[in-house]
């Protein structure tokens, strides 16, 4: 790679460097590729390492770079689009669903979930755990709460344990006529268990998408999905769920 010197510009030097680095990421590096060390990058662009660190930190905040323990700074994959304005509805686990089932247990849900599902305060529900991957990296985790009344045909033979049990619960859920969905999204902080799964520090920013699925005039299931804030963006439109975006606008953002 050649040497690129920064010209005199009115904006802060680190901000201009961020723009130059963004162009280099788009043209010279691929997803997951490890960047050269700070000393080499600072020499290439003719800046102090402190300026370089500011630019790298900004790119990390924008989701263009990731600092991975024991690996270094790598090029981040395209952000996952979190669709919140869709008019098309589908049960979790339907065709085209990119989530991967992990396991399912019967447990008493948090009080707020029990209130939304209108179950008894001590009534156990099926709790399905799923994960979402992008470019080999886990970017989201989900807890899906399903009352027994929503899957009346489920038997122990159909659902032994682990991922098989999760898939059986989701298959049984498909038998209900889905009447609609209601979604809400908010910025939150990663709890210890979510942070571990998402390879983030506890307290790191996350987007929490809560979805209520309606059938037979009631909330038949409730999903709480936690996304890494540095790997996703909100989308609005007619897409039927969470999609991976590879559009040119992503490169220019």
From TrEMBL:
SUPFAM superfamilies: Chorismate lyase-like (SSF64288), Winged helix' DNA-binding domain (SSF46785). Keywords: DNA-binding, Transcription, Transcription regulation. Residues 11-78 form the HTH gntR-type domain. InterPro entries: Bact_HTH_transcr_reg, Chorismate_lyase_/UTRA_dom_sf, Tscrpt_reg_HTH_GntR, UTRA, WH-like_DNA-bd_sf, WH_DNA-bd_sf. Pfam families: GntR, UTRA. This is GntR family transcriptional regulator.
């Amino acid at each position: 790679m050649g040497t690129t010197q920064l010209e005199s510009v009115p904006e802060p030097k680190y901000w201009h460097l961020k723009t130059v680095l963004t162009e280099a990421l788009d043209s010279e590096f691929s997803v997951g590729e490890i960047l050269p060390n700070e000393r080499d990058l600072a020499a290439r662009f003719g800046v102090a390492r402190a300026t370089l660190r500011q630019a790298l930190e900004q790119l990390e905040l924008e989701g263009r770079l990731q600092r991975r323990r024991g690996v270094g700074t790598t090029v981040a994959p395209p952000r996952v689009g979190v669709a919140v304005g869709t008019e098309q509805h589908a049960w979790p686990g339907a065709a085209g669903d990119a989530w991967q089932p992990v396991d399912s247990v019967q447990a008493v849900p948090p009080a707020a979930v029990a209130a939304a599902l209108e179950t008894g305060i001590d009534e156990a529900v099926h709790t399905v755990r799923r994960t979402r991957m992008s470019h080999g990296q886990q970017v989201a985790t989900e807890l899906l709460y399903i009352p027994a009344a929503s899957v009346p045909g489920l038997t122990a033979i159909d659902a032994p344990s682990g991922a098989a049990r999760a898939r059986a619960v989701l298959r049984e859920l498909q038998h209900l006529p889905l009447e609609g969905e209601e979604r809400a999204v908010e910025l939150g902080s990663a709890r210890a268990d979510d942070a571990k799964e998402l390879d983030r520090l506890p307290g790191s920013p996350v987007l929490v998408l809560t979805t209520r699925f309606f059938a037979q005039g009631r909330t038949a299931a409730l999903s709480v999905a936690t996304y890494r804030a540095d790997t996703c963006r909100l989308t609005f439109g007619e897409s039927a769920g969470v999609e991976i975006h590879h559009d040119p606008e992503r490169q220019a953002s």
